[in-house]
């Protein structure tokens, strides 16, 4: 029976990049001490979520990947013998920046990166100002403990992205994310938004027969206008919740995933087998009409 212990690190951030990196390393150590073999950090964990404003000064937060943050985390990964999933602001070249997640294996080696494919542009989430859409395609990484698929935040709303990642052989899908509530909203709206966010990701787990791990930040940012809703969670291959974090507390939790369940679920609920791939050509259209 193949089981893997995954660590979810849900934390708040400050304006100090080094402080956030140091804090994340402490959290990785906590997760490893609890038995984690793969540790996932939240989206853009070295900074506040800066995409609430269009400010050219924020480009100074970006760095090369591999670069300083991955260098520091590689040392930790090797020491603790854990895989680390690290979401960072990547400076690729002059004027070209990406929202990128690096994967570091348990021997400290750098396995590669995934660049966020879907880029939002909503009030307080002005990511198109900063990020070039990913051009590496969807990715899976063969780590010491499992073959993992990485998608990032806005990617989580797209079943096409999760399907392709699963078809590439991902044993587990990880979603580093940063999403929250406008603090002027009513509680019913907050609940509806969170439920939609969790439901769509659990549906990816059900449709593909793989566990999903979603890690969000927590805390008030944007001068109190935004409450990042935490609520990080992990599912099994049937979408069952195995862990659900609070909306307002930092948490470092380790969850054991049974990867053999994927084979069981895909045999009993054969959604992958029964796909009519010959009928899916229209999915490549923006909208199906006469134009």
TrEMBL record:
The keyword Nucleus does not apply. Residues 4-259 form the CN hydrolase domain. The keyword Hydrolase applies. CDD domains: CPA (cd07573). Keywords: Hydrolase. Pfam families: CN_hydrolase. It comes from the Bacteria. GO terms for molecular function: hydrolase activity. InterPro entries: Aliph_Amidase/BUP (IPR050345), C-N_Hydrolase (IPR003010), C-N_Hydrolase_sf (IPR036526). PANTHER family: BETA-UREIDOPROPIONASE, NITRILASE C965.09-RELATED. This is Carbon-nitrogen hydrolase. It comes from Pedobacter ginsengiterrae.
């Amino acid at each position: 029976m193949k089981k893997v212990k995954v660590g979810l690190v849900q934390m708040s951030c400050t304006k100090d990049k080094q402080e956030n990196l140091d804090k994340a390393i402490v959290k990785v150590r906590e997760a490893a001490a609890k038995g984690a073999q793969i540790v996932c950090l939240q989206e853009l964990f070295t900074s506040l979520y800066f995409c609430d404003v269009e400010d050219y000064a924020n480009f100074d937060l970006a760095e090369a990947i591999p670069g300083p943050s991955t260098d520091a985390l590689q040392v930790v990964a090797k020491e603790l013998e854990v895989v680390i999933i690290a979401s960072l602001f990547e400076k690729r070249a002059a004027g070209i920046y990406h929202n990128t997640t690096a994967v570091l294996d348990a021997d400290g080696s750098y396995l590669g990166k995934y660049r966020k494919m879907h880029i939002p542009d909503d009030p307080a989430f002005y990511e198109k100002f900063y990020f070039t859409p990913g051009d590496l395609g969807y990715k899976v990484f063969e780590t010491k403990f499992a073959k993992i698929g990485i998608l990032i935040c806005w990617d989580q709303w797209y079943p096409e992205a999760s399907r392709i990642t699963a078809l590439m052989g991902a044993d587990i899908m990880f979603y580093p994310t940063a999403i929250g509530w406008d603090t002027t909203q009513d509680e019913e709206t907050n609940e509806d938004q969170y439920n939609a966010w969790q439901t769509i990701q659990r549906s990816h787990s059900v449709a593909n027969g793989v566990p999903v791990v979603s890690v969000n930040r927590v805390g008030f940012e944007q001068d109190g206008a935004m409450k990042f809703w935490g609520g990080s969670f992990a599912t099994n291959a049937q979408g069952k919740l195995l862990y659900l974090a609070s909306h307002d507390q930092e948490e470092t939790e380790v969850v054991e995933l049974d990867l053999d369940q994927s084979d069981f679920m895909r045999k009993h609920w054969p959604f992958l087998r029964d796909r009519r791939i010959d009928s899916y050509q229209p999915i490549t259209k923006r909208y199906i009409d006469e134009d």
